[in-house]
Amino acid sequence: LCMLERVDAKDVLHFYDTEDSQWCRFKSTTLSTRDAASVQWSPDGRYIVVFDSLLYDSINILNSDGKTLHSLHLYGVNVGNKPASHFTLGIRSFNWAPSGHILAAGRYDNTCLLYNHANWKVLAELKHPLDIPIDPILGLDCCGEIIESRNFERGSVKPHKVAIYIERLIEEQPYYCRQLTATTRAEELKDAYVISRLPYTVKSTKIDPKKPNPKIGVGLCLFSPNGGYLATRVENAPHAIWIWSIGGLHISLVGLLCHSSAVTSVQWDPRLLPAEFTRLAFCTASGRVFIWSPEGCLSMTVEKPGSPFPVKTLSWGPSGDTLLLQSSKSFCLLHLKSAEGEAIFKPLEPTWTAPSRGRGPLEENNRDPQTPATHSTFPADAKSDLPKWALSAHRLARKTFRE
């Protein structure tokens, strides 16, 4: 167990032995952060990441023994004699890939950085263009930049098709009934997705600079359980969900889900499924529930006897066939059925599990125990979720480490 503490105006990370009956503290490490705000273990238990507060942009990467491996900065370019972090806000959000091989960090400038664990370099810088038309045929490049037709004709970039889903309200009635009028009740309407074939612009909301804690930047970055997809949301455009493909040959935006109201809750199906069966469930401020998969996207309005059920948050059941929907005063269970049956959802092989490392008995004077040297930083049997084009850098780093 690790815990942050502020001692003499310095950030200190303490380590506690959970197997000891008294939870003895066996090591303390002084960090280079200015005002550490949070600490988190990687899913495989090999790394510890410490983030600075939003006024600074530093990230400390430590191993499980408390040794600092790298000190990262979201804004690495200096401006004059001062670091770029002096002029910008720091970390907006972060999330580990399930295998612990990729770390996603969202910034306040609508950019999400992906770091790989081999050398802690930036794999990709995912930008979220707002108020600019996005062509669904050309899409965005691997860094989230708009692909223009003139660049495509020159052959300087390759197109990446993106499925742009736009929520629309349609009347739930036969074609021979009366047409939609201003007096049509809200209960007679249902929502549906329309796939855009024309360039679509994600509109941003105006931010009041006088108010504290502005809603800007990438406030959500969430990996799918198999590590193949990354869902992001920009706080000043909360009605749009951006879905990126991470596990293929190239990182690309594959889905852009736009709605009439802000997205309030997002959750991936917790099962470890093949990429084609991955599912993302989310709800909006309108109280509707949406489910996305690589095959398409659907929406539904949950109703209880007498009136609709305004969904505020949702979460998956462990089996992946149930959604817990919560409103401000009540909750309900939504059971999902598959026409093909559960046989199609075959679980993948489990990800690499970090081996247990025993420690010797703590010394009486509470000195830090000596950690034996080990070459297990890059295990050969690790199931990596790095993109295929990034695996060569991973192997090179592993070879250099062994030499």
UniProtKB/TrEMBL annotation:
UniProt GO cellular component terms: microtubule organizing center; MWP complex
Polar residues biased stretches: 368-377
Annotated TM spans: none
SUPFAM superfamilies hit by this protein: Tricorn protease domain 2
Alphabetical list of Pfam families matching this protein: WD40
Region entry Disordered, spans: 350-382
PANTHER family on file: WD REPEAT PROTEIN 8-RELATED, WD REPEAT-CONTAINING PROTEIN WRAP73
Protein name: ANAPC4_WD40 domain-containing protein
